[in-house]
Specification:
8 helices, four-stranded antiparallel sheet, Rossmann fold, 13 strands, Methionyl-tRNA Fmet Formyltransferase, Chain A, domain 2, alpha/beta, seven-stranded mixed sheet
Length: 273
Amino acid sequence: MKLVFLGTPDMAVPPLRALVAAGHDVVLVVTRPDKRRGRGGAVSPSPVKAAARDLGLTVSHDVDDAVSAARDDGAELGVVVAFGQIVKPHVLDVLPMVNLHFSLLPRWRGAAPVERALLAGDDVTGVCVMALEEGLDTGGVYARREVPIGPETTAIELRSALVDVGTALLVDTLAAPLGEAVAQTGEVTYAAKLTTDDLEVDWSQPPAEVHRLIRIGGAWTTFRGKRLKINGAELHDGVVVPTVVQPEGKAPMGFDAWRRGARPSRDELFGAA
């Protein structure tokens, strides 16, 4: 099938490579513009753009080029994976699209389904291949598959599992005619993107909630007026025990090593006393 692929981050690379390996003709890849990345601030392409170049595919930063790909190059379908930009109706009118969404819709529509599933304490999530339409993740579903969430699963681990399962599901779904999408049913919840403030640890909250927040990645607290990242923690007998921390301006280190150096008093110590 002749496809236009729209995606940007690392998690969109395996689906792109798998579609090419499956024999689909990706006539165009649309991704977000190059930007400054990393501490050095050098301008670099998105992971999808880098992969597309490696595969010898044509790349664009303009969604409207998908219209030209349909009209001039015979593209039959657009495939969206973590693109990070709204696809306007005038594009969808010319080129129908499917989206690989990382939740079991209609639960966790929106930008941060992985993080919100973890925060809510869900014990299962999944992936959906859905019809893309103007509404926010409102389209019918062609296929879905569940993925369990363990009590220690981090966002990095869950995202990796979802990408693996979602890539296989996408390839399987596009191996045959799409058929009829099934309308979403059930309670609708929304996965708003988390802010830096959302990631501040409130140690007065129940330990299980604190542990889930830390498992997302990027959690932080304040110690002696400076920000301290909590990069890892374990939950033991109802107590959150940090395992890896990162002081402001320094590299990550084990919690015990940090504790020996910082020598916090009992009143200053968070989590495990």
